[in-house]
Structure formats: C-alpha cells, structure tokens
Amino acid sequence: MQNSDSIRNGIRFALLILLQVLLCNQINFLGYINPFIYPLFILVYPLTGNKALLIFLSFLLGLTIDIFGDSGGIHAAACVFIAWIRPIALKYSFGVSYEYNTIDIAKANISRQITYIATMVLFHHLILFSLEIFSVAHILLILKYTLFTSIFSGIMIHGSILLFSRTAQ
Amino acid sequence: MQQIIYFFLRNKNFLLFLFLFTISIGLTLQTHSYHSNRFLNSANFFSGGIYSIQSGITGYFDLKKHNTNLVEENKRLRSQIESMKAVAPGAIIDTSAYYSDYIFRNARVIHNSYAKTKNQLTINRGRNDSLKIDMGVITSNGIVGKITHVSSNYASVQSVLNIKSQTNAKLKSTNHFGTLKWDTQNPSIVKLEDIPRLAPVALGDTVVTGGSSTIFPEGVLVGFVKQFVLNEGDDYYDLSVELFNDMTNLSHVYIIENKEKEEIKTLEVEVEDAEQ
To answer: What is the total count of domains within chain B?
Structure first.
C-alpha cells in the first residue's frame, strides 16, 4: 500500500509538471490568465501522509515550475506555504476528525470541497502574484491577477479531482 | 538541552517550512536585482530539452507565416543590394571593405512568454555557439531583447516585455534619445520615456534603437508612436510605442555580437576609476 502510494505520487508529480509547463502556461486566456493546475498534487496528497515530506516535495514541485518559467522562487514559496497550512485548511473544511476517518475529498460534501480548494488556491495565488509583481503600489493588479486566475485554477483543480476520483471500486 | 530537542521535534514541520520558504524568498529576491547571476533558469539541459521537444512539434503550426516573413526580408535585402549597385554601377565588390563591428547569428525561439510581468524567452543556441550574456536579440521586424543567461546549448533572453528591461531608443526623424520600458499592460505596446518636450513628435513616427548602447547597433527598428501625452508643466513626453514585432509569435531570431564591446566596456571602467 505504502509503495503503490509513493509510485502514484511520483507519477502525479511528473505528469502535473508537464501538464502545467507544456499546456497550462500557454493558454493566456484574455491575455494574462494562465491557470495553475499543479497545486493539485499538494491538495490530494494522502491525508495521513508524512507532513514534513509533503513540505519538501512541494518545494521541489514549485522549484521545478520556477526553473521552467524563469521566475526565481515564487512558485516554490507559494507551494511550501500551502503545504504547511494544509492541515489547518483540512481541519477547517472537513472538521477535526479528518485525520482519523479517512475522508475521500471527492466524496465529501460539495461545499466542504469548495471551501478546501478555494482556501488553498487563493493563498497559493496570492503569495505567487505578490512575489511576482513585488510592489505595494500595484496591489490592485495583484488582487486582480489573484482573483481571476484563482477562479480558473479552482475550476480546473476541482474538475480534475472529480474526474479522477476512484468511484468504481 | 532536552527541552531544546523537544522544541525542535515538536515544531519540525514549521521549521522545515520556514527554512524552505526563506530559500524561495531568497531566490525570488535575486530575480528582482538588476544584474543577477541566477543559477536556476530555463536555459539548462533539462528544461531546455523539454522545451525544444515541444517546439519541435508546435513549430510546424506557424511555418507558413514564418516563411512569408523570411521571404519578405529577403526581398527587402535584395532590393537594397540592387539600389546599392545602382549607386556604384560596375564597381568591383571588395568584401574586405564591408568590415562591420557586428556579427549576426541565427537561433530559434523554443519558449516564449508574454503574459507575465517579467517575460523571458528561451532560444536553442548557447555557449557552444559562442553566445554570451548581454548580446542583443532581434528579428527582421525589430528588437526582441537581450541575453541574460547561457548554458552550453540554450540561452535565456530577457524580453523587452520585462519590467526590468531598459533599452536606449530614439526617434528616427529627429535623433532625440529616450529609454524604452514596459508597463505590463499590453504585449504590443511599450513606453518611451525621457523624450524632451522640444522634440517635434508626431503620431506614426518611427522609433529605432539609439547608438549609446553596446547591445544593439544604432537604427534597429523598434516600433511607431501610437500615442503621446505631454502633461502641463512636464519637460518630457509620455510616448506609447507600438512594436513592429509580434511578440506573441516569434520563431527565427538573430543574435547580435558587438566586437568592440570589450574595448568600450574597458574604456568606460577606466574612466570611472580615474574619476574616483
């Protein structure tokens, strides 16, 4: 079980990077909206998995995206942050007991799913664009980018969770 | 002692987060400084390889348009040659007289971004093709940017659509100099600042690169004046320049090497040292 989980995570890691870099970074919807689908890795990482390992893997994930996009460390910073707040976001969205009952994110109540995804995606994008634009004078630009990109990323991530959840057991 | 160890064990996730977050912020801050020597960029074996595979596939989609561009350029150059022959008919062409300070090399864009605030391009030539940092990149239509990183087979180019980019440019008709910057609003419009109010500016005036930079030769096309504002009491115009290049669709580019650059740089450093 442990082994198959690591393999699945590894494949997901590589696939999401390729999907992000080769497809999502080229969309440029309305000129500037590129959805970010790779935070999906952090969102669906096994709920009972090692938290320190998740933080480290998120750093690697973000850094790889940064290397492809020539963006320094902005994705790495955003990923590490949401990996760290993930237990808090889970507790807030699914209740205290998430660690003991193995909750399947795709089968939970729809409003809980949306709360969880929206919190994580909004924090990720806020940090990402704050660091990319890096200027207090452009705070409206940061909020605009965060809001519109979050909507698209959220829809894509939620769609992927629903699409790839193992419904047929 | 035990207390300290317990503290570390209890907060190990937070400390790991803090450590990695600090590294990320450090890497980010590096990209905000003007003359950074980043070691993490897309001009490396791994991402360069993936980008060149991708561009090998998607490169076919725009072949028709790029071929038309190249034919147009050939046509223009041919008519230039013919007009030169008309000036000096029958003259023996002495190629040693065509000495130029600049060497041109060609490359292909394998990755292009234009929707961010700091846009970069990746091209499929690198150190093995004698590319160096701070060489200019242009197309037949106008300027593209300058090289900021090189690996053995790839190079990363800072696009003019980058808030860090500052290019010396002038009005072709009057030779008034200014600085070309980008305000992140539109990938086809850049701003030309510091043109003095006494310059006669008109809509549609051509803007070309100025001669005071060692990156671009004088007179490389940039764009035309699309809009100009002169505020009351201002000494300088606020010019919007529409680029001749379609920055969203680039394929074949030329890289310019200035052979005199080392000498100019050395001289400038000597003068600076002497003044101190």
So the answer is: 1
Residues of B within 8 A of A15 (CB-CB) are none
- Contact flag B20-A67 (C-beta cutoff 8 Å): no
Contact of A39 with chain B, judged by CB distance below 8 Å, is answered with: no
Q: How far apart are CA B180 and CA B167, in angstroms?
A: 5
- Using CA of residue B177, residue B234, residue B32, residue B188, what is the dihedral sign? negative
Interface test with B, best of A42, A53, A70, A130 (most B CBs within 10 A): A70
For chain A, list the domains and their CATH numbers. 3-168 (1.10.1760)
Q: What are phi and psi of A103, to 5 degrees?
A: -85, 135
Q: Does B112 contact chain A (CB < 8 Å)?
A: no
Do A84 and B184 make contact, defined as CB atoms within 8 angstroms? no
Residue A169 has pLDDT above 60, yes or no: no
C-beta atoms of A67 and B46 within 8 A: yes
CB contact under 8 A, A72 and B38: yes
Q: Which of B172, B143, B170 is nearest to B237 (CA)?
A: B170
Q: Does A32 touch chain B (CB under 8 A)?
A: yes
* Whether the Cβ atoms of residue A58 and residue A36 lie closer than 8 Å to each other: no
B20 touches chain A (CB under 8 A): yes
CA angle B155, B161, B163 (to 5 degrees): 100
What's the rounded Cα separation, in Å, for the pair A102 and A86? Answer: 16
Residue B191's domain is classified under what CATH number? 2.40.10.350
CB contact under 8 A, B116 and A71: yes
What letter would DSSP give residue B170? Answer: E
| Tens-place pLDDT, residues B51-92 | 888 888 888 888 888 888 888 888 888 888 888 777 766 666
A108 touches chain B (CB under 8 A): no
Within-domain flag for B275: no
Return the pLDDT at B34: 56
In a domain, B172, yes or no: yes
Tens digits of per-residue pLDDT, A16-59? Answer: 999 998 888 888 787 778 899 999 999 988 888 888 899 999 99
For residue B202, the enclosing domain spans 167-243
ipTM rounded to 2 decimals: 0.85
B159 domain residue, yes or no = no
Q: For residue B65, tell me if it sits in a domain.
A: no
Closest CA to A46 of A16, A15, A95, A1: A1
Q: How far apart are the CA of A151 and the nearest CA of chain B, in angstroms?
A: 17
DSSP label at residue A97: G
Residue B90 forms contact with A (CB below 8 Å): no
